DNA sequence: TGTGTTTTTAAGTAATTTTTAAGAAAAAAA
DNA sequence: TTTTTTTCTTAAAAATTACTTAAAAACACA
């Protein structure tokens, strides 16, 4: 499947180089940035599978960098390297959405295992998502393969292909923002004025179907996208 | 087709009973074991279709039980119930061959959907490239080798080779989507405009034959394929 | 070779799905 | 506030896909 790309941000030059070589030796494609600022630039110019961030760094610390990274990518796994057992660090790390953390000095074997575990988990998770076709949305159950939106024992509402794809994408992001651009590029294969208008029409159609349950609605987040909220 | 048998292994007595009743209410035949040891004994003395295992249990935890279960049956679907954020659990679960996992507390609707999806997947999977040639479709019995579609004691309707192959494929995917493309590539060996028109003609022929039973019909899923529904 | 069976092609119709359009409403920016 | 941008709603036009029937072509077999 091609070796995974890792962004390593570590200001200690000696340690950084050793760690990079060690990971490279284990078949990872590692890019090494020497501080947070450089790390952010590299992150934006590449497509990484995982980030390893030192917490204590000059110019921009690991947490601040993590926040910026999350700004562009909510999915990418992040591992923090913290000094000693800084409880606060750990806590703060999880708030930013750390997938794991390691106290320096750490066992390099353990780091390898954690990397492997996290990457594998992400893979099965995303595979899961890409195959899921049954959803619970309020009182509805929705089957995106049969394109049926059913409520209780009533006759299911049939959906058109695009209606179904769009609702599925909203359901995958249930209660969270589903970016407009994502649906347009994935479902309409193009993001322009007309496809965007077309999508609006489909949102209107879905809203009509979903009226049958008060606790379910599609909210617009101006300029960003839509949010399927399910209060149940 | 008779209700599916589920083995539920959960040590929390309150939660276990509630969950058992909920599943029973949804037409599953549930057996409830109170720990891993009891679960294994019950598993060996019965013939279940699916297992739902709590991970954290006294005497024998869910993973250990899963390993023992896999020792006797490599096919049976297993769903794990894990405590909230135990990411390691998830990973370990997949290593043992989990079909899915749910974090407690979970949405019971979601559990139902997952059970349904997993059981259905197993069914179609095993049906897939099977040598099966006898099918029950509503009041019909269909033998794809003899190309006979019979109802009651009446003289069987003889089918042409293509009619028989197509009906067999629909029957393998009974009540589920049979993708147009699949039939075209497997039966017609080519997927183009003309083979697609040809297939339409065959669908029309099959529909005529199947009219003899009201509870059976071939529905079109626009742009996707056909679904042989059997309400009986 | 002829005959019955099976399969493909054709053509017109029907149904479904998607896009486009245009005015009104709402939200954000100036 | 006024202006600009984005979203909502409805309806009609355009495009795609499916259905029906029948005739032509291909095939199988005596």
Features:
5-stranded parallel sheet, 4-stranded antiparallel sheet, Rossmann fold, alpha/beta, homodimer, DNA-binding, elongated, 2 domains, Arc Repressor Mutant, subunit A, 232 residues
What does this structure look like?
Chain A is an alpha/beta fold and 232 residues long. Chain A has 2 domains: 5-130, Rossmann fold (3-Layer(aba) Sandwich); 162-230, Winged helix-like DNA-binding domain superfamily/Winged helix DNA-binding domain (Arc Repressor Mutant, subunit A), CATH 1.10.10.10. Chain A is built from 8 helices and 12 strands. In chain A, the strands form 3 sheets. A 5-stranded parallel β-sheet of chain A has the order 2-1-3-4-5, sandwiched between helices. The first copy, chain A, has a 4-stranded antiparallel β-sheet with strand order 6-7-8-9, covered by helices on one side. Chain A has a 3-stranded antiparallel β-sheet with strand order 10-12-11. In chain A, helix 2 packs parallel to helix 3 and helix 6 packs across helix 8 (193-210). The radius of gyration of chain A is 22 Å and the shape is elongated. Chain A starts with a strand and ends with a strand. The interface between A and B is medium-sized, with 15 and 20 residues. Chain A binds a DNA duplex (30 and 30 nucleotides) through residues 160-163, 194-198, 200-204, 207, 220, 222-223.
Short description:
Helices cover 46% and strands 24% of the residues of chain A. By secondary structure, chain A is α/β, with parallel strands linked by helices. Chain A folds into 2 domains: 5-130, Rossmann fold (3-Layer(aba) Sandwich); 162-230, Orthogonal Bundle (Arc Repressor Mutant, subunit A).
């Amino acid at each position: 499947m091609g070796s995974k790309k890792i962004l390593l941000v570590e200001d200690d030059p000696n340690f950084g180089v050793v760690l990079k070589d060690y990971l490279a030796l284990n078949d990872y494609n590692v890019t090494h940035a020497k501080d947070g600022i450089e790390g952010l630039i590299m992150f934006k110019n590449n497509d990484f599978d995982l980030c390893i961030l030192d917490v204590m760094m000059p110019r921009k610390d690991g947490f601040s960098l993590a926040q910026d990274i999350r700004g562009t990518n909510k999915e990418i796994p992040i591992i923090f390297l913290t000094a000693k057992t800084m409880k606060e660090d750990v806590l703060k790390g999880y708030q930013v959405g750390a997938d794991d953390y390691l106290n320096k000095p750490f066992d390099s074997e353990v780091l390898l295992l954690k990397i492997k575990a996290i990457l594998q988990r992400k893979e099965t998770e995303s595979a899961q998502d890409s195959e899921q076709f049954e959803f619970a949305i309020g009182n509805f159950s929705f089957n995106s393969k049969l394109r049926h939106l059913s409520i209780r024992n009533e006759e299911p509402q049939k959906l058109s292909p695009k209606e179904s794809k769009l609702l599925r994408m909203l359901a995958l992001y249930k209660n969270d923002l589903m970016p407009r651009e994502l649906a347009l590029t994935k479902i309409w294969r193009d993001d322009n004025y007309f496809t965007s208008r077309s999508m609006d029409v489909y949102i209107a159609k879905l809203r009509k179907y979903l009226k049958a349950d008060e606790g379910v609605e599609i909210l617009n987040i101006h300029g960003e996208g839509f949010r399927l909220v399910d209060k149940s």
